Hints:
Helices cover 69% and strands 2% of the residues. By secondary structure, the chain is an all-alpha fold. The chain has one domain. Strands 1-2 form a two-stranded antiparallel sheet. A hairpin with a 2-residue loop joins strand 1 and strand 2. Helix 1 crosses helix 3 and helix 4 runs parallel beside helix 7. The chain starts with 12 loop residues before the first strand and ends with a helix.
Amino acid sequence: xxxxxxxxxxxxxxxxxxxxxxxxxxxxxxxxxxxxxxxxxxxxxxxxxxxxxxxxxxxxxxxxxxxxxxxxxxxxxxxxxxxxxxxxxxxxxxxxxxxxxxxxxxxxxxxxxxxxxxxxxxxxxxxxxxxxxxxxxxxxxxxxxxxxxxxxxxxxxxxxxxxxxxxxxxxxxxxxxxxxxxxxxxxxxxxxxxxxxxxxxxxxxxxxxxxxxxxxxxxxxxxxxxx
Length: 227
C-alpha cells in the first residue's frame, strides 16, 4: 500500500479515539517535578535556570502589569518546545503540525491582549490603527490596512508555526526516503545523503526550539502594546 508523504500529519485514531489528546498530555509527564529539599538535583536546577532566563528575556521590555502573564507564557513555551522536540522522534505524532491546534492557542491569547488594551487604555489601543502625522486623504485607507493587519496576527502566528514544522518534517522524510532508495544502487551517494539528513535533523531541533520561542515572543510583543 502506497502512503502519501502527508499521511504523517494525520491525527492518529485508535479504536475510534483520537490520540492527539494523549500526545498533548504526555509531554507534561517528562518534566521533573519540584521537591521540598533545599538543594535540587542537576536536572531540576538546569530546568529552573532555563525557565528563569527565558522568562527574564521575554518580559524585559514589558511593563510591570504585564508580568502577570509570565507563568502562562513560560508554560506555553515549554509546552510547545516539548511537542516540537518529541515530534522529531521516529513513529511519533506532532500535534503542532495541525493548524487547528495552533490557531486554538494563538487566537484566544491574541484576543486577550486586545481586550486588555481596550479595557485599560482604549485611546492608545485605537491609536495604533492610525499613525501620527498621516495625511487626511490616507486616513481611511490606513485605518482599513491597520485593522486588517491587526486581525491577521493570530493567523500569522498559527500558520508560521504549522508551516515551519510541516516543511521540516516533509524535507526529512524526502531525504530519508532518498537515502534508503539509493543505498543498494549508489552507496557513496546514499552515505552523503544520510550525512545531509543528520545535519538537517540537527537544524530541525534548532527550528523546533526557535519556533516555540518566536510564537511566545510575538505574543509578548502584542501584550507589550496593550499594557
